[in-house]
From TrEMBL:
<dbReference type="GO" id="GO:0008168">
    <property type="term" value="F:methyltransferase activity"/>
</dbReference>
<feature type="domain" description="HIG1">
    <location>
        <begin position="1"/>
        <end position="85"/>
    </location>
</feature>
<dbReference type="Pfam" id="PF04588">
    <property type="entry name" value="HIG_1_N"/>
</dbReference>
<keyword id="KW-0489">Methyltransferase</keyword>
<protein>
    <submittedName>
        <fullName>tRNA (Guanine-N(7)-)-methyltransferase non-catalytic subunit like</fullName>
    </submittedName>
</protein>
<dbReference type="InterPro" id="IPR007667">
    <property type="entry name" value="Hypoxia_induced_domain"/>
</dbReference>
<dbReference type="GO" id="GO:0033617">
    <property type="term" value="P:mitochondrial respiratory chain complex IV assembly"/>
</dbReference>
<keyword id="KW-0472">Membrane</keyword>
<keyword id="KW-1133">Transmembrane helix</keyword>
<dbReference type="InterPro" id="IPR040153">
    <property type="entry name" value="Rcf2"/>
</dbReference>
<keyword id="KW-0808">Transferase</keyword>
<keyword id="KW-0812">Transmembrane</keyword>
<dbReference type="GO" id="GO:0032259">
    <property type="term" value="P:methylation"/>
</dbReference>
<dbReference type="GO" id="GO:0005739">
    <property type="term" value="C:mitochondrion"/>
</dbReference>
Length: 100
């Protein structure tokens, strides 16, 4: 039973990430730059400008990885047809059919 709940939780997190890709990438960028600044601030030998540059570079690398992951998820959704099931509930096709 616990394994079923864990799978459901993981699946719900995956669905949220699929629905909110840009928000996920933004949150990863923010956490990456925050973590990198925190780590770099513990290095006393570096100048402040170098610390900020390193933090930006680390966050940029994390953002590129997150964007690549979002692209893989998008590709998988299109290939599996999971995305095609999402649109019909928003666009009822019978409303656009011609009635002669």
């Amino acid at each position: 039973m616990a394994e079923h709940n864990a799978k459901t939780t993981i699946e719900s997190v995956r669905e949220w990430v699929v629905e909110h890709k840009l928000r996920t990438v933004g949150c990863l960028w923010l956490s990456g730059i925050t973590g990198s600044i925190a780590y770099n601030w513990s290095q006393p030998a570096m100048k402040t400008s170098v610390k900020l540059i390193h933090a930006r570079l680390h966050a940029q690398a994390l953002t590129l990885a997150a964007l690549a992951g979002a692209a893989v998820v998008e590709y998988y959704d299109h290939k599996s047809g999971a995305k095609a099931d999402r649109y019909p509930k928003f666009l009822p096709m019978d409303a656009y059919s011609r009635k002669d």
